[in-house]
């Protein structure tokens, strides 16, 4: 799939972009540790050239914190198109400013910042509205333009389908348009609270706001990974009366019950999820949000279709949500769907008047200030409930396998580099993967 997709994209050529994914190398010849993709299930920690200022508005960071997202597993598993050997992964990271381009006046060397996972130009129609993930000018993928009719913004470390930009699971990273995509951090916010402003906090918040959770709603959350758990927390903060979490991993179900007080459904035990929901909520859900994954079919029919590449994504969660919500209910998709699914229950969608909302990639810049100042700094949202582990960058390869298999009670990890601060109070201490009880 990778070779075919890359061949098609090369044949179509690149779309116009104001930023380039390629970077100059630091003239000193310095190298850094970085996680790179070399094929399906072939990730390696390599020595890569440290990036230098390539365009005048670049900022180079020393990475002080990074993490692994559930969607990164799609890269590891070879399920996202146009990966190329040597691609540096990672779209969630923070750091201190190491170098700035000549056009950068907002940041000073040594300043502490967090990066949005998307790269935005700052001046197009969408960026003017702070809809940074929909930027018109930072993704050169002709294949995405062909498949979707338009392009999203470029993303860090997430294939050439999103621009081919090297990511932040590394010791240094180049941030194009740094004055747009970096948020300065106040001293009273520890790294373990700040890092997740890069993705999971605005992504989960966007899912709840965009799907329209209102006070008194009964909400169903499919998938109890970090995004699902945070979405459940946001829904409760927005006044949801009840939140029901749906998953198959006993540890995650127990975690959601203990940490957030959610009602839960194990779909391995209750294979007919809508039936179980109607037993709990006879009127049906007001809101359903898909925070799960497209790549794990439940039924034999869709397992066969995926194997034969007759579909790229599966519709099973979408169908469960459409059936489970009340008439005029809202269903939001924040899970990372990529292509085509067969057998969507479009009849129920139409006849029930269901609002099926593609949330899109979260426009991080739209929510940054609100989440930081109204929720994190006030203590209303504390990330310590979801950050379960801390490891050194040296352990990132074995960690991917554990995270992909949902072992060791992992929810969200903080990955430290040689530049990281010590662990903050209330957050996990550094441990080594080899010492974990699996």
Automatic annotation (TrEMBL):
Keyword Oxidoreductase among record annotations: yes
Domain Alcohol dehydrogenase-like N-terminal residues, every copy: 56-182
Keyword Chloroplast included in the entry's annotation: no
Keywords: Metal-binding, Oxidoreductase, Zinc
Required co-factors: Zn(2+)
InterPro entries hit by this protein: ADH-like_C (IPR013149), ADH-like_N (IPR013154), ADH_Zn_CS (IPR002328), GroES-like_sf (IPR011032), NAD(P)-bd_dom_sf (IPR036291)
Domain Alcohol dehydrogenase-like C-terminal: 226-292
GO molecular function: oxidoreductase activity; zinc ion binding
Annotated region described as Disordered, given as residue ranges: 1-27
Pfam families membership: ADH_N, ADH_zinc_N
Family: Belongs to the zinc-containing alcohol dehydrogenase family.
PANTHER family referenced in this protein's UniProt entry, alphabetically: DEHYDROGENASE, PUTATIVE (AFU_ORTHOLOGUE AFUA_5G03930)-RELATED (PTHR42813:SF1), ZINC-TYPE ALCOHOL DEHYDROGENASE-LIKE (PTHR42813)
Listed name of the protein: Chaperonin 10-like protein
Organism: Schizophyllum amplum
């Amino acid at each position: 799939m990778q070779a075919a997709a890359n061949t098609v994209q090369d044949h179509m050529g690149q779309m116009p972009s104001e930023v380039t994914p390629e970077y100059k190398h630091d003239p000193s010849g310095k190298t850094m540790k970085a996680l790179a993709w070399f094929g399906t299930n072939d990730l390696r920690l390599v020595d890569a050239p440290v990036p230098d200022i390539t365009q005048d508005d670049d900022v180079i960071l020393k990475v002080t914190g990074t993490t692994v997202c559930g969607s990164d597993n799609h890269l590891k598993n070879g399920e996202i198109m146009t990966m190329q050997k040597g691609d540096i992964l990672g779209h969630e990271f923070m750091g201190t400013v190491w170098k700035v381009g000549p056009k950068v006046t907002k940041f000073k060397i040594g300043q502490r910042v967090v990066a949005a996972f998307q790269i935005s130009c700052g001046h197009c129609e969408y960026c003017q509205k702070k809809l940074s993930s929909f930027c018109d000018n930072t993704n050169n993928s002709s294949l995405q333009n062909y498949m979707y009719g338009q392009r999203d913004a470029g993303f860090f470390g997430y294939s050439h389908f999103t621009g081919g930009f090297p990511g932040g699971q590394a010791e240094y990273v180049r941030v194009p348009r740094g004055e747009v995509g970096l948020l300065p951090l106040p001293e009273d916010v520890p790294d373990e609270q700040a890092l997740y402003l890069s993705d999971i906090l605005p992504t989960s918040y966007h899912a709840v706001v965009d799907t329209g959770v209102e006070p008194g709603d009964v909400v169903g959350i499919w998938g109890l990974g970090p995004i699902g758990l945070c979405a459940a927390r946001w829904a409760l903060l927005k006044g949801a009366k009840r939140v029901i979490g749906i998953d198959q991993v006993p540890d995650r179900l127990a975690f959601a019950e203990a940490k957030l007080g959610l009602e839960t459904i194990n779909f391995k035990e209750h294979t007919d999820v809508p039936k179980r929901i109607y037993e709990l909520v006879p009127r049906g859900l007001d809101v359903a949000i898909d925070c799960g994954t497209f790549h794990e079919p439940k039924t034999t029919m869709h397992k066969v279709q995926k194997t034969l590449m007759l579909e790229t994504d599966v519709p099973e969660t979408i169908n469960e949500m459409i059936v489970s919500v009340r008439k005029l209910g809202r269903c939001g998709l924040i899970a990372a769907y990529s292509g085509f699914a067969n057998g969507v229950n479009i009849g129920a969608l139409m006849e029930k008047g269901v609002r099926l909302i593609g949330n899109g990639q979260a426009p991080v810049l739209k929510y940054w200030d609100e989440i930081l100042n109204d929720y994190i700094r006030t203590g209303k949202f504390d990330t310590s409930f979801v950050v379960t582990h801390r490891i050194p960058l040296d352990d990132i390869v074995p960690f991917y396998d554990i995270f992909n298999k949902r072992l060791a009670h992992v929810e969200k990890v903080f990955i430290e580099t040689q530049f990281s601060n010590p662990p903050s109070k209330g957050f996990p201490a550094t441990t080594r993967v080899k010492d974990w009880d699996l």
